[in-house]
């Protein structure tokens, strides 16, 4: 992109009232990357956040860049929020990605590699090992690696091999003795995914990590005997992984088979990125560019002293030898609304009051205990759940299997379109189905993202319904890393709403209205806009008003323009948006009264909270939905109203603490960039990822947002 074109595109981008979703996401990944540069973090934490940015970027290329190529490859029109059409936007996007890639590489080489030895490990190559260690590696290669490698030659007689997504690959250019250069051949050697990323050599005072590609490179000659190797080129490809089952024209097709077919397509989707070690063969790269119809801006170069694929660093981070080098978070505390956690029967407690859980500060165990007790309780008649993502060794699945064995009615909606968890969900769902559970494999034209559970129990000649509504998945692994909200209740209004919603999901029912739920795809966007407009009207009439929203992403333009109108009416709008934010705050005449913060730190902020002041008659909701087109139009979502005074104050306090944070917080600027929020001279550090462990009821009950 030349300077004139760049300036022109920047002018178009900056003149738009909306921020590009994809460019905003890149800014989010920069905030994650910023965690890897913080001086107070150990090198293991820095490597962790670098690995997260790499994993994020892989998914971004597979899904978002893959989606863009769907438009480019099939000549479909697409106008981004930035105002740019497909090709100019791709040029801008790739420029931003290239710059981010260079920052990652520079940080790794300058700030991380030189400081590894002082922490008890180094990344090295085979040549720096002792003769005995080299011999040990050679034996390891011959026994464990060599039999797994398959050189695949491409020439006029053989078809181009299928290279797998995100695997390291050697492209080897060879020439038979006496042959002319035009007869050279290109072979590919893929490094199988089940080989560890590093070969570990443990010494008394240090662990040496040898990248597996270096082990193979040293012994590559054994795969190409009696030919001349012109060049050895290490690279990695990313393929388009974007598909939208919701848009399938054949809705009545065998749904599970459709999912499986799409999973296979991920392996052969069009190439959208090549990462390659510098010093590569130009002949080879030209061949690959032509083969995959890819341009130079999608080729990402890596210096040889660096490494390809920073996601491999998880092997270093996960070494038990360094377990104590990662910060240990405090143990979870008892929920304010359930101080007797673990000592009283949760069924009895819920008859008298609601419980609000705030993970990971509160354990997920009350939810798991409830399901496990329900599975064994003779008076429990039915358990209904929606499941989006599960832990690898899920207590939820085991409890539901046990419930089915005990003769209870178990209904489970497994969302098999949960991106990258499809295979696990299909496997777990089949287990339940074989055990006699009523299993629904998603709803064909929408994705089920709502988090709901209903337990029906016979208590003393009456029926009690125990309900859980949440913002996060029923996943005990991520519950230790993600901040989420969960409400446990026997409230009849919510129980009726949840029962109705399950009838919608599992049957053919269209309820007139819900009392305490807002659901998508039917009502959510319009209901939220009504609440926003009410705040605007209150402000115009001189009444107190305020909008406070905490979500993962804000992308829906109808919501954004409603918030703009609220700002212009004088409503103070405070938004805590962790990731994508397509709204421009602080633009003159448009959004002066809107402030946007992003919290990025030790925990992944995943909870969604909506609070409207409503002239003192507050409306406070939590739930599964972000403010995105897909959430409102293409997903089954729910937001649940929280009325109990202590619980509503807890949600308000979460927002208040987020607004006070000056350690993990970034302030969004009008141009879409972000500035870290730091303590002022007379101000102490306020880190929400620590402060939430120290809450008390009195402090929470005093909270005010207006």
Could you characterize what this model shows?
This protein has 706 residues and is α/β, with parallel strands linked by helices. The relative contact order is 0.09. About 1% of the residues have low confidence. The strands form 4 sheets. Strands 14, 18, 19, 20, 21, 23, 24, 25, 26 and 27 form a 10-stranded mixed sheet that branches. A hairpin with a 2-residue loop joins strand 15 and strand 16. Helix content is 36%, strand content 21%. The chain contains 20 helices and 27 strands.
How would you summarize the topology of this molecule?
Elements: H1 3-15, H2 21-35, H3 43-73, H4 86-112, E1 121-123, H5 131-145, E2 151-154, E3 168-175, E4 185-190, E5 198-202, E6 207-211, H6 212-218, E7 228-239, H7 255-268, E8 271-277, H8 282-292, E9 299-302, H9 314-317, H10 346-352, E10 355-359, H11 365-376, E11 380-387, H12 395-405, E12 409-414, H13 422-434, E13 438-440, E14 447-448, E15 451-459, E16 462-470, E17 482-489, H14 492-506, E18 517-520, H15 524-540, E19 547-551, H16 557-568, E20 573-577, E21 594-599, E22 604-605, E23 609-612, E24 619-623, H17 629-633, E25 635-641, H18 645-660, E26 665-668, E27 674-676, H19 688-691, H20 697-701
Parallel strand pairs: 1-6, 8-9, 11-12, 12-13, 14-25, 17-22, 19-20, 20-21
Antiparallel strand pairs: 2-4, 3-4, 3-7, 5-6, 7-8, 10-17, 11-15, 15-16, 16-17, 18-25, 19-23, 21-26, 23-24, 24-25, 26-27
Helix pairs in contact: 2-3, 2-4, 3-4, 11-12, 15-16
């Amino acid at each position: 992109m030349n300077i004139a074109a760049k300036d022109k595109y920047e002018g178009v981008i900056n003149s738009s009232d909306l921020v590009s979703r994809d460019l905003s996401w890149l800014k989010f990944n920069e905030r994650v990357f910023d965690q890897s540069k913080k001086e107070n973090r150990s090198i293991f934490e820095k490597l962790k956040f670098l690995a997260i940015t790499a994993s994020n970027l892989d998914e971004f290329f597979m899904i978002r860049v893959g989606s863009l190529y769907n438009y480019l490859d099939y000549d479909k029109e697409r106008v981004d929020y930035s105002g740019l059409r497909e090709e100019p936007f791709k040029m801008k996007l790739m420029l931003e990605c290239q710059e981010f890639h260079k920052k990652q590489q520079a940080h790794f080489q300058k700030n991380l590699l030189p400081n590894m030895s002082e922490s008890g490990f180094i990344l090295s190559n085979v040549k720096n090992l002792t003769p005995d260690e080299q011999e040990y590696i050679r034996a390891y290669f011959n026994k464990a690696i060599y039999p797994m490698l398959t050189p695949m030659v491409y020439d006029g007689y053989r078809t181009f091999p299928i290279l797998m997504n995100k695997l390291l690959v050697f492209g080897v250019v060879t020439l038979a003795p006496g042959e002319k250069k035009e007869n050279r051949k290109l072979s590919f050697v893929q490094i199988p995914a089940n080989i560890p990323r590093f070969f570990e050599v443990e010494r008394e005072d240090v662990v040496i990590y040898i990248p597996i590609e270096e082990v193979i490179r040293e012994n590559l000659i054994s795969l190409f005997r009696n030919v001349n190797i012109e060049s050895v080129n290490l690279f990695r490809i990313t393929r388009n992984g974007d598909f939208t089952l919701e848009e399938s024209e054949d809705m009545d097709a065998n749904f599970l088979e459709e999912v499986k077919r799409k999973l296979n397509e991920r392996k052969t989707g069009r190439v959208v990125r090549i990462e390659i070690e510098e010093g590569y063969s130009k002949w080879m790269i030209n061949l690959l560019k032509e083969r995959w119809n890819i341009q130079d801006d999608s080729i990402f170069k890596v210096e040889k002293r660096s490494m390809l694929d920073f996601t491999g660093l998880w092997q270093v981070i996960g070494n038990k030898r360094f377990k104590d080098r990662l910060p240990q978070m405090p143990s979870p505390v008892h929920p304010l609304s359930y101080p007797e956690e673990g000592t009283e029967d949760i069924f009895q407690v819920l008859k008298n009051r609601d419980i609000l859980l705030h993970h990971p500060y509160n354990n997920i165990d009350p939810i798991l205990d409830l399901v496990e007790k329900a599975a064994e309780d003779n008076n429990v008649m039915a358990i209904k759940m929606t499941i989006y993502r599960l832990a690898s060794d899920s207590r939820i699945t085991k409890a539901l299997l046990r419930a089915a064995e005990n003769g209870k009615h178990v209904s489970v909606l497994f969302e098999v379109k949960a991106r990258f968890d499809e295979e696990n969900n299909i496997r777990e769902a089949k287990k339940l189905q074989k055990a006699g559970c009523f299993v629904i494999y998603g709803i064909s034209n929408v994705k089920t993202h709502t988090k709901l559970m209903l337990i029906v129990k016979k208590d003393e000649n009456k029926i009690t319904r125990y309900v859980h509504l949440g913002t996060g998945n029923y996943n005990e692994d991520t519950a230790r890393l993600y901040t989420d909200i969960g409400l446990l209740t026997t409230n009849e209004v919510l129980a009726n709403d949840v029962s109705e919603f399950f009838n919608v999901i599992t049957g053919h029912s269209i309820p007139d209205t819900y009392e305490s739920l807002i659901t998508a795809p039917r009502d959510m966007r319009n209901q939220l806009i009504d609440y926003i407009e009410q705040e605007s009207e209150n402000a115009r009439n001189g009444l107190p008003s305020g909008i406070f929203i905490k979500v993962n992403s804000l992308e829906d333009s109808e919501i954004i323009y409603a918030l703009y109108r609220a700002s212009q009416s004088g409503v103070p709008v405070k938004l805590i948006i962790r990731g994508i934010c397509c709204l421009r705050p602080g633009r003159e005449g448009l959004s002066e009264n809107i402030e946007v913060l992003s919290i990025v730190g030790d925990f992944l902020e995943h909870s969604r909270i909506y609070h409207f002041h409503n002239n003192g008659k507050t409306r406070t909701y939590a739930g599964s939905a972000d403010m995105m087109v897909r959430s409102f139009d293409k997903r089954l979502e729910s937001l649940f109203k929280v009325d109990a005074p202590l619980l509503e104050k807890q949600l308000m306090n979460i927002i208040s603490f987020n607004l006070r944070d000056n350690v993990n917080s970034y302030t969004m600027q009008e141009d879409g960039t972000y500035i870290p929020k730091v303590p002022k001279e007379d101000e102490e550090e306020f880190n929400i990822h620590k402060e939430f462990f120290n809450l008390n009821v009195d402090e929470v009950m005093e909270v005010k947002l207006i």
